[in-house]
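Notes from hallway chat w/ T.B., transcribed later so I don't forget. T.B. wanted the structure written out for a chain they're using in a teaching module, and asked if we could keep both sequence and C-alpha cells in one place. Agreed to drop them here.
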Amino acid sequence: MASSLYKWLFISVLSLVLISAKPIDHPFHVSVLEINHNASDKNLEISCKIFTDDFEKILTKNYKTKVDLINAPNKSAMDSLVKKYVQSHLAIKINGKPVIFTYVGFENDKEAAYSYFEVNNTLSATNIEITNNLMYDQFDDQVNIMHIIVGGKRKSNKLTYPDKSVSFSF
C-alpha cells in the first residue's frame, strides 16, 4: 500500500514539474537549404528550412518588431521580413554569375519554417556557388546544410559558423 502511495506521489510531483517547466531550447542550430534545377521549366527552385522559434527570434532582433510566423496576424508583413532576411544572408552564383532569386512565400511545418524562392531562366547550372550565413547573426554554433540537385544528381555539403561559402560542380 505504501509503495503505491509513493508511486502516485512521485508521478504527481513529476507531472507538476513537467507542466510548469519552461520549454527547453533545442541543443543544435541548423538550417537546410535545398536547390533543385528544374531543367524543363528552366528554373532554380530554392527552399530554406529553419527552426521557427530561432527564425522568429532573429527576425524580431534584426527588424525590431513582433514576429509570429505560425499565427501571423499580418501575413504580408511576415512575408516581407522573411524575404528580406533570407535575401540578405544568402547569395547564389550560377556559372560564375550572381542571380536574383524571387520570393515565392513561406509556410510552417510543425517546428520548422520553410521559405521558398526561385530563379527564372536558368538554362544550365554546371557550377553553383553559395554564400550562406543564415542565422550566423544569432548563433555561433550554426550549421547550414545544403543539398543541390542538378540533372538528377544530388550533391550535399555543410557550412559551420563562421564558414559561409561553398561551390558545387556538375
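Follow-up for T.B.: Residues 13 and 19 are 10 Å apart (CA to CA). Might be a good example for the class.
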